TrEMBL record:
One of its GO terms (cellular component) is mitochondrion. Keywords: Mitochondrion, Transit peptide. InterPro entries: ATP11. Belongs to the ATP11 family. It is found in: Mitochondrion. The gene is atpaf1. This is ATP synthase mitochondrial F1 complex assembly factor 1. Its main location: mitochondrion. PANTHER family: ATP SYNTHASE MITOCHONDRIAL F1 COMPLEX ASSEMBLY FACTOR 1, CHAPERONE ATP11. It comes from Scophthalmus maximus. One of its GO terms (biological process) is mitochondrial proton-transporting ATP synthase complex assembly.
Length: 303
């Protein structure tokens, strides 16, 4: 252990290896990161050189007297500290406690975003899982669609292969702008993925209320049966004051159109919206929608 006087000198000798882009973080005394591997703004980052010398540390000049004093009065302790520092640098990143902690954190985030539990509850809260255990995917699909045919909402049965493509693409392209045909023109909705949920919010509300804008439509996907039965079940929660069943169905169909398409030109609109927003053109969404034939069919039901 170092005493209080040597505590300040620790900053000049101890260096933390970051996990990102070969950067080396050198911290000021008394500052500790909240999450290992994530470097706060208080840290200063410097490019890593091969086998950097102690004198190259940017804090060396500030604590030079202390370091020289330790080097001359306690050479063995000084040598031991340097050796410990070099051993820490040789440690395989994947085996370090810091890397292990970050890996576990990433797994937790992945679990939360890929969890089968959604805001709409689990599939077991809707269907008796024991009763459908011996049913085929087709039989379950028929039961699902029949049940929701009497409800003022929408539902769907998505083949596992199709949903896997949609879900995979949504992880790196979480948002998209959808065009909803109205009697005069189009109303735009911003769709945002959150795990197995897809939230639709009117663009006007987003521009007016920002992050506090409420969703007018939420699609809930239930992937519990995707491996055993080969299907993913979907239903929705909608605000009938702002959106009709026909309009909700149009937005849901567009998810398949843009995220589940085999045409790279169509999916490129989604990628452009997420990664090159300056190049995004909303008229291309309308053109794609009209070309698919989805648009005009729901216009009479518009508000």
């Amino acid at each position: 252990m170092w005493d209080g006087g040597d505590g300040k000198m620790a900053a000049a000798v101890v260096q933390m290896s970051c996990l990102y882009r070969g950067m080396l973080a050198v911290r000021a005394a008394g500052i500790r990161p909240l999450i290992p591997g994530l470097v706060p703004a208080q840290f200063r980052a410097f490019s890593v050189r091969k086998e950097p010398q102690l004198e190259e540390n940017p804090f060396f000049s500030k604590y030079q007297d202390k370091i020289q004093q330790l080097r001359s009065t306690k050479p063995q302790e000084f040598k031991a500290r340097l050796e410990k520092r070099h051993e820490a640098k040789k440690e395989v990143l994947g085996q370090s406690k810091q890397a292990e902690f970050v890996r576990l954190m990433e797994q937790e985030v992945e679990y939360q975003t890929s969890s089968e539990h959604t805001g709409g509850g689990t599939l077991g809260s809707i269907l008796n899982m024991e009763l459908i255990q011996d049913m085929t995917g087709e039989e379950i699909s028929e039961l699902w669609m029949k049940y929701y045919s009497t409800k003022d909402t929408i539902s769907a049965v998505i083949p596992t292969q199709n949903y896997e493509m949609i879900s995979s693409r949504s992880k790196s392209n979480a948002m998209f702008l959808y065009a909803l045909p109205q009697n005069e023109g189009y109303e735009f909705f911003l769709g945002q993925w959150s795990g197995h949920e897809l939230h639709f919010t009117s663009l006007i509300n987003v521009q007016t209320l920002g992050e506090h804008a409420p969703s007018q439509l939420i699609l809930y996907h239930y992937p519990e049966l995707r491996e055993e039965k080969g299907v993913v079940l979907m239903t929705a929660e909608m605000d009938p004051k702002f959106i009709t069943v026909h309009q909700a169905q149009c937005l849901a169909n567009q998810v398949q159109l843009f995220y589940g398409t085999q045409r790279q030109e169509t999916f490129r609109l989604v990628e452009t919206f997420n990664h090159k927003p300056a190049d995004f053109r909303h008229m291309l969404v309308i053109a794609e929608l009209e070309q698919s034939g989805l648009g005009p069919a729901v216009a009479p039901g518009g508000s």
